[in-house]
Amino acid sequence: MSKKVVTLGEIMLRLSTPGYERFVQAESFDAIYGGGEANVAVSLANYGFDAYYVTKLPKHEIGQAAVNALRRYGVNTNYILRGGERVGIYYSETGASARPSKVIYDRSNSAIAEAKADEFDFDEIFKDAAWFHTSGITPAISKEGAEITKRAMQAAKKAGAKVSIDLNYRAKLWSPEEAQAVMKDLMQYVDVCIGNEEDASLCLGFTPKGLDVTSGKLDVEGYHEIFKQMKEEFGFEMIASSLRESYSASDNGWSALIYDGKDFHQAPQY
Prior knowledge:
Blueprint: E1 4-8, E2 12-16, E3 30-34, H1 36-46, E4 50-54, E5 56-57, H2 61-71, E6 81-82, E7 89-93, E8 102-106, H3 122-125, E9 131-135, H4 137-141, H5 143-158, E10 162-166, H6 176-186, E11 192-194, H7 197-204, H8 220-234, E12 238-248, E13 251-259, E14 264-266
Parallel strand pairs: 1-4, 1-9, 2-7, 5-6, 9-10, 10-11, 11-12
Antiparallel strand pairs: 2-3, 7-8, 12-13, 13-14
Helix pairs in contact: 6-7
């Protein structure tokens, strides 16, 4: 059985304030490269899978540093296109107590946002692939990003690979109306859908009752309802969500819920 897993997305340069400093206090930033799909590729490589990451990065040294950040963890970067002008950047300020974390994006006109679907040889990329994973961020960064995601999903299904997506709604990238116009169409190719209650509502239009992560309490029955609706409409094989109870910016309860179409499986909270 093939252990080849392909992920597609945007890897960005994250500039974080040291400790809990505010942006206006910081005189230096900690630099790290990452992104949702890149993080998945790194984790899978650590678990022994043949993890491939697909994106486009500039040929200059900052683009190469992003490629090197993946290679050091054993991620295969052979399918990363080189070109374009810039690597997307985001600035991160860690929250504490009642003060929430804050993120400022500087990702417009990044190499992957301006890439064209025809630049990628998806038949070659998905040759012998068992799984493809992406997120709702790539379709949100540009119209071509949405087309790249769709072409990749189509090629993955043609190759017989399973397709998973983390809905991952980003309000700074598009509106709920824009998201639903794109994401609902993509769901026809998806086997495993991952997302919390906000993602399901804003990306797909499902709104469960009685869910409020800021209340300190969680009504899991609301998730049961929404997962069943998603299964009925899109035919997903599996649906998963993290379950977060937010007590403060630095104190949260975490668990997870998976629905296989018949039964619900919940991980213990920690």
